[in-house]
Amino acid sequence: MTLLAVLAGLIAAATLGVAAAISTRRRALAAVPRELRHPVLFLPLNFGNPVTLAIARRVVPLAGAASRPGVRVEQRTLPATTDDLPVEVLTYQASGQAPRAALLWIHGGGLVVGAARQENTWCSRVADELGALVVSVDYRLAPENPYPAALDDCFGALRWLHANAAALGIDPDRIAVGGESAGGGLAAAVVQRAHDAGVPVRFQLLIYPMLDDRTALRADPPNSTIYTWTPDSNRFGWTSYLGRPPQDLDDRPYIAAARRRNLDGLPPAWIGVGDIDLFHDEDVDYARRLNEAGVACELRLESGMYHGADALLDGKAPSMTAFRAAALDALRTALAKP
């Protein structure tokens, strides 16, 4: 066979492979409402090797770079945490407003990518519309900094908020903790740790939270490799954070929020997730367990919503605008003066 024939065969095979992948993705899109279909759904989004991880770390923090006019954004370095390392945060405060409540916000990124600044749009919106002080944590990322680095950073930021409540002008009894995706999972774990340490938290806002490392051990649901956060990425993220692949038994404290057996006494929660999100089952189960434990938890399920669709389409797709508004309304109600 000539070299030309070999090259022609390789090109043909590659073309067929691409065509098959596109065909598979088109079939999977049938589960996604037209208003939620976005070009990103055609991209192979996996963060399972150093090259894709490096690219994602450069691109993801740019996703939400714009903050609202009239909101002052400041970078602060907080005192050292339990391992004697300082914590970097961004604070958001509406100009001319004295905050009376606060939100500790934790960004997403599968525990391996992302930065506080990617949440500028959302955090400045909360500060503007609720008049709250928002503190967004630039926690350390895995795999360079495995468990409990990110957890320690976020819990240290919560302790700082309480210790400096008077100077910051906030009511220590009106502090909420929230996050999206990996940040939502960390937020739930921080709330559990705060409960055990006697640190008050008014409310937890969990947007499609990454709660259970054992999801990486289960059979992959249909089409789950299509919708933004994939099983491969999930396994990589959890393996990076845990310091080894997930396993059925892991008794390290607060390693994954869903592993906690006793949920009694935790603060009220709002959980929002789509029905084709990889985290759907673990989020619905956690909401059920919270309610069974006597913890008020509102669960919002969105039909045809994949992971992160609201971040892509807020203000463009009515359902995603409503999803974000519902989260904001729940936070507003929770932080209202008693």
Automatic annotation (TrEMBL):
One of its GO terms (molecular function) is hydrolase activity. Keywords: Hydrolase. InterPro entries: AB_hydrolase_3 (IPR013094), AB_hydrolase_fold (IPR029058), GDXG_lipolytic_enzyme (IPR050300). Pfam families: Abhydrolase_3. Residues 103-308 form the Alpha/beta hydrolase fold-3 domain. This is Alpha/beta hydrolase. It comes from Streptomyces neyagawaensis.
